[in-house]
Design brief:
Bound molecules: zinc ion
CATH architecture of the largest domain: 3-Layer(aba) Sandwich
Radius of gyration: 18 Å
CATH topology of the largest domain: Beta-carbonic Anhydrase, Chain A
Number of domains: 2
Structural class: alpha/beta
Low-confidence stretches: none
Mean pLDDT: 93
Number of helices: 6
CATH class of the largest domain: Alpha Beta
């Protein structure tokens, strides 16, 4: 599968991201936190020294073109299609109970979950080959497609950030955006705008209230 172009040449994203091109450009409120170490590892090749205690929860997509630069004994990791955590709130609660206070929520460009419907027939056929009845496979796909399908990766990341801030009010959440071709992370501009305006993210609305449902 080919890589998409460098993200700052892609008109879909280039004006919507902040480029952390040197360590001093990491947002000030993330410095001294596990987010700083994660960004330094991603963008500047610095190793992460594990303390033997879980420092971080990382949530991201299952995307095979992306691997995380973290050592063992450092982070809990949740990887789900699109990177959204709908249905994985129990895992978040577990990580918090184990002392984790920081969640890196990482979206990426060229996400397959923007192409769920074009994959409908292929996925249903795959389930049928796995022994499912076709009716059941179609029903399964149509139920779950709505939960996993996204239209824009950055907008989806924003909505998930707000949803999770409402559910976990003390948890520090850093939304990051990974570029497949650049192999580095960027900061969504919408996040910097929220911070600059001093807005409480739990007061923001998400378009689809159903996303707040834990079921
Ligand atoms: Zn993806």
């Amino acid at each position: 599968m080919p890589l998409p172009p460098p993200i700052l040449t892609d008109s879909c994203y280039k004006d919507r991201l902040f480029d952390i091109s040197s360590p001093d450009l990491i947002p000030e409120h993330w410095k001294g936190t596990p987010f700083e170490g994660l960004i330094n590892a991603h963008n500047f090749g610095m190793g992460i020294q594990s303390t033997g205690q879980p420092q971080l929860l990382i949530a991201t997509c299952i995307e095979f073109r992306y691997s995380l630069p973290v050592p063992r004994m450092h982070a809990y990791v949740l990887r789900r299609a699109s990177g959204r955590l709908v249905g994985s709130e129990f895992s978040v609660a577990y990580a918090i109970a184990k002392g984790v206070r920081h969640l890196a929520l990482i979206g990426h460009n060229d996400c397959g979950m923007t192409q769920v419907q074009p994959n409908r027939q292929g996925m249903i056929d795959a389930l049928v080959e796995e022994g499912w009845h076709r009716d059941r496979a179609e029903e399964f796909f149509d139920y779950h497609a709505g939960r996993y399908s996204i239209t824009d990766e950055l907008t989806s990341l924003e909505r998930e950030y707000i949803r999770l801030k409402r559910l976990f009010r003390r948890l520090k959440i850093a939304p990051l955006f990974y570029s497949l071709a650049d192999n580095k992370v960027f900061v969504p501009q919408w996040y910097l705008d929220i911070k600059a305006r001093g807005v409480d993210p739990t007061e923001l609305s998400v378009a689809d209230e159903e996303l707040l449902s834990i079921t």
